[in-house]
Design a protein that fits this description.
single chain; TIM Barrel; eight-stranded parallel barrel; 13 helices; about 40% helix
Length: about 350
């Protein structure tokens, strides 16, 4: 892509981050409709990767959170991603946390958000997926599911089951998000007792849906970067025990060590971007050591260059996902990462 983003970014950074986010996505839709994207986007890198029985066009995907409702699937797919992950979606619509709830930290190439799973509900998202050309043409589309804020944590499994039932037919794979810091008590689901119960319920639900639809959809788990080694190893063992197909490492961090002296650095929420890179890579290394060479790991967190993407692979990841890096680098980052990984 011709690097026009470097000219647009100062103007976008004058806007409220959430306003700039929504404006950018709407304009991507318009550019696709007018046929402009294909004039400026470099042809997607072809570097096929097969993981969990899924053939990915290339190993660079879109992380969940950027398109929570599946409103911009075709425009985002046109940027050159090898796969997209949509969500997090919840069974019922919810408005999320009060605004402002997203903050840029340019000095650290970071973002803090406390969005709170704002979305239109899983049924609305599934309807949009069905209308997208990307899905109709067989594009790899992950669906990231979570629980509603109003659902007590002890009843969380019921929400995940409802969401899983709703997305099962359209999803290429399903990601269970238990690691956002922006839904009260959600990370408690990473503890042994609650995680064992949740994974057992989801395994039973998938078996039932497999019989219904005649297809076993891969199930991924997304975890936090703030876990210690013993917690990571416990989760790794449970993945194997319950037949979870892959793990996504990692979500945002609650740590503020790298940004405590920066404006907005003490805002509540999850910190993403460059400051989470090292923690994410350490989690990936720990998982790879515990799980062996064959278990699929998707690396996300702090990728702002092709070299950062290669670090994820060196740590043990098979694929990578981008989000915050796109805010600072723009769509060129996708091609840069895909090229770097093809040459790795």
């Amino acid at each position: 892509m011709i690097d026009r983003y470097s000219f647009l970014r100062p103007w976008l950074f004058c806007l409220d981050p959430e306003q700039a986010h929504n404006l950018t996505l709407r304009n991507l839709d318009r550019a696709l409709h007018w046929g402009l994207l294909k004039r400026f986007v470099t042809k997607p890198i072809a570097d096929p990767q097969t993981l969990c029985g899924i053939k990915f066009l290339n190993p660079v995907g879109l992380a969940a959170g950027l398109d929570k409702d599946g409103k911009h699937i075709d425009a985002l797919a046109a940027l050159g991603f090898g796969f997209l992950e949509i969500g997090t979606v919840t069974p019922r619509p919810q408005s999320g946390n009060p605004k402002p709830r997203m903050f840029r930290l340019p000095e650290a190439q970071a973002i803090i958000n406390r969005m709170g799973f704002n979305n239109d509900g899983v049924d609305a998202c599934v309807a949009r997926v069905r209308r997208s050309q990307f899905w109709k043409n067989g594009g790899v589309l992950g669906m990231n599911i979570g629980k509603n804020a109003s659902t007590p944590i002890e009843d969380a499994a019921s929400d995940y089951i409802l969401a899983m039932e709703a997305v099962y037919e359209v999803a290429t794979y399903i990601t269970v998000n238990i690691s956002s810091p922006n839904t009260q008590n959600l990370r408690a689901l990473q503890g042994e007792e609650m995680l064992r119960s949740l994974l057992g319920s989801l395994d039973e639900t998938r078996n039932r849906l497999c019989d219904r639809f005649g297809a076993r959809k891969p199930l991924f788990l997304k975890i936090a970067p703030d876990l210690d080694c013993s917690d990571i190893n416990l989760i790794a063992d449970l993945l194997v025990e319950f037949g979870i197909d892959a793990i996504i490492a990692t979500n945002t961090t609650i740590s503020r060590e790298a940004v405590q002296a920066i404006e907005h650095g003490q805002e509540a929420g999850g910190l993403s971007g460059a400051p989470v890179r090292a923690a994410s890579n350490l989690v990936i290394k720990t998982l790879r050591a515990r799980l062996g060479n064959d278990f699929p790991i998707i690396g996300v967190g702090g990728i702002l260059s092709g070299a950062d993407a290669r670090e994820k692979l060196m740590a043990g990841a098979n694929l990578v996902q981008l989000y915050s890096g796109l805010i600072y680098r723009g769509p060129d980052l996708i091609n840069e990462c895909a090229t770097a990984l093809r040459q790795a």
